C-alpha cells in the first residue's frame, strides 16, 4: 500500500507536476492551509475564517490589508512598494468548504 501512496502512477504524478509548475513553482513562499471543520452549525464558517485570519496575521504569513484607500495612503503604499522587495506568496487551501477559498480570494 505504501508503494501506491508514496509513488503515484505516472498519470497522477503528471497532474501533480503540471499543477505545481503552473501555480506554485515561481513563488518565493508557499503556504498551505488545511481547514477541517467538524460541524458548520456549531462552528460557523465566519468564526473559523476569523480564527484563520488572526493566526495568519499573528505569524506574518499573509500580507496586511490596508483599511482605507485614500489618496495619501495609496501614495504611501506605492512608495513602500518601490523600497521593499516584492515577495510572491501562493496559498494552497485544502478544505471541504469552498467558502474559505472564496473569502481569501475576495480579500486578496
What report would you give on this structure?
The protein contains 5 helices and 2 strands, in the order ααβααβα. Helix content is 53%, strand content 13%. With 108 residues, the chain is α+β, with helices and mostly antiparallel strands. The protein has a two-stranded parallel sheet. The N and C termini lie far apart (40 Å). It has one domain (27-107).
Element layout with pairings:
Layout lengths: L1 H5 L3 H15 L4 E7 L9 H14 L12 H13 L5 E7 L2 H10 L1
Parallel strand pairs: 1-2
How much of the residues is beta strand, in percent? 5-15%
| Element string (H = helix, E = strand) | HHEHHEH
In angstroms, what is the radius of gyration? 18 Å
Please report the number of helical segments. 5
Count of domains: 1
| Helix percent band | 40-55%
Q: Indicate the mean pLDDT.
A: 80
Low-confidence stretches: 68-82
Find the structural class using helix and strand composition.
alpha+beta
Distance between the termini: 40 Å
Please state the overall shape, judged from the principal axes of the Cα atoms: globular
Question: Would you report the number of β strands?
Answer: 2
What about the largest sheet? 2 strands, parallel
Spatial arrangement of strands, main beta sheet: 1-2
